[in-house]
Design goal:
Blueprint lengths: L2 H5 L1 E2 L6 H4 L13 H11 L3 E4 L7 H6 L4 E5 L2 H9 L6 H4 L2 E5 L11 E6 L10 H14 E12 L16 E5 L6 E12 L4 E11 L5 E12 L3 H10 L2 E7 L12 E8 L5
Parallel strand pairs: 1-10, 2-3, 2-5, 3-4, 5-6
Antiparallel strand pairs: 6-12, 7-8, 8-9, 9-10, 11-12
């Protein structure tokens, strides 16, 4: 690894370019998650818990649907961005939303929920099985009997998990709503560790003016853990959940290799 890794800040850890363009980011070809999650929230009747709630892009939609929701996020910058949206909604909607700072592996919100979810692959930011299990146990404690949980991960392609795998450069240009300028987001290096099932991606973000001059730049590091489908099933069962549904996208397509993992599970026996 070169010096850029040492200088890079963790993904979303500070207010700046990445958080400013967060709501404009392109989803992979798995379709939008918001309608899917609003449907599950409405079926539950609430209250709802979102872990890694980010800028509140899903939480606010659930509140608009008439359901109370609590969003938990590790990063103050994300919570600030989510709270800034409060001015865009009527008081009745705003009264249904609360954002809290906390770690998804160890939290106590003092209430229980009928539905919880972890979308946008955020569960993969937990880099060890121990952290994953701690998160699921914390969720289990916060769910009412029979409460449901939705988790989204990508389904790993083995050809891209090898230490020497050739991974294509990812790049997109997004308009920054805060400045009106374009931001180019580009992956510049990736390192796989098949033993720990983790990957590290170095991202470069450059905001450019009309002449193409870079006016702001950030280098951020994204660390993720991939989890195989059957491994995830066993982990959920270990932590006291029963699988209700397993999809490969948010259109409820059946499981498919290399797509998404979209799990809908229900709290059952005590977690071990």
């Amino acid at each position: 690894m070169d010096a850029r890794w040492e200088k890079a800040t963790p993904y979303y850890s500070r207010t700046g370019l990445h958080i400013e363009i967060y709501d404009r980011m392109e989803w992979p070809a798995n379709g939008p998650d918001v309608p899917f999650l609003v449907e599950l929230a409405e079926e539950s009747g609430g209250p709802v818990l979102e872990l890694a709630s980010g800028t509140g892009r899903v939480a606010w939609a659930i509140a608009e649907a008439g359901i109370k929701v609590v969003g938990l996020d590790l990063h103050p910058g994300m919570i600030k961005a989510a709270e800034a949206k409060r001015q865009d909604y009527p008081d009745a909607v705003g009264g249904r939303v609360r954002f809290e700072q906390g770690d998804m592996t160890d939290f106590n919100l003092g209430q229980t929920f009928r539905f919880a979810y972890i979308t946008f692959r955020s569960f993969q930011a937990l880099l060890t099985p121990e952290a994953q299990r701690a998160c699921l146990q914390s969720v289990w404690r916060h769910l009412e009997p029979g409460g449901r949980l939705m988790i989204n991960l990508f389904d790993p392609k083995l050809s891209r998990c090898d230490a020497g795998a050739d991974w294509p450069i990812e790049q997109e240009t997004l308009r920054n709503p805060a400045t009106g300028l374009d931001v180019e987001q580009r992956s510049i290096e990736r390192v796989n560790d098949p033993l720990s099932q983790t990957l590290k991606i170095l991202w470069q973000l450059q905001e450019k003016d009309g002449s193409g001059r870079v006016v702001r730049e950030a280098i951020e590091r994204l660390d993720l853990r991939w989890t195989y489908r059957q491994e995830m099933r066993y982990l959920l069962e270990l932590c006291g959940f029963e699988v209700e549904a397993e999809y490969s996208d948010f259109q409820k397509s059946p499981p498919a290799y290399g797509g998404e993992q979209v799990w809908v599970v229900r709290k059952t026996a005590a977690s071990s």
